[in-house]
Amino acid sequence: MDLKVSWSKSAIEQLETIFDYYKNKANERIAKEIVKRIVDKTLLLETQPRIGPQEELLRSRKFEYRYLLEGNYKIIYWVDEPFIKIATVFDCRRNPGIIAEIK
Fold it and tell me: pTM to 2 decimals?
């Protein structure tokens, strides 16, 4: 059964932040390419929703959070059939303790 990827407001804001950062530091083409790779990676989840390992820092939460890696970014999600909910896109170069603050 194919599921549908759904992005939280926070995850969309993160994509916008990533885009803006690379647009200013590099150029618009690179910014689009990075964001596209992140979004495309989530499409795997439609047919393989549990492909990502569990996020250890969120084990105590109600939902079973998992993640995929794309470049320097961790795409954190949970399965709530018929949806895959993208909670956030986390820059792995930041302090990992920030992940525990995900709502």
Answer: 0.92
- Identify the domain containing residue 13 by its residue range: 4-101
Is residue 69 within 8 A of residue 89, CB to CB? The reply is no
Residues 54/76, Cβ–Cβ less than 8 Å: no
Domain count, the chain: 1
Backbone angles phi, psi at 62, to 5 degrees: -60, -45
Q: Any idea what the CATH number is for the domain that residue 48 is in?
A: 3.30.2310.20
Return d(Cα 95, Cα 81) in angstroms, integer: 31
Question: In the numeric block, which tokens belong to residue 84?
Answer: 């895959």
Distance of CA 50 to the CA centre of its chain: 14
Q: What is the pLDDT along the chain (103 residues), one digit of tens a residue?
A: 679 999 999 999 999 999 999 999 999 999 999 999 999 999 999 999 999 999 999 999 999 999 999 999 999 999 999 999 999 999 999 988 888 887 6
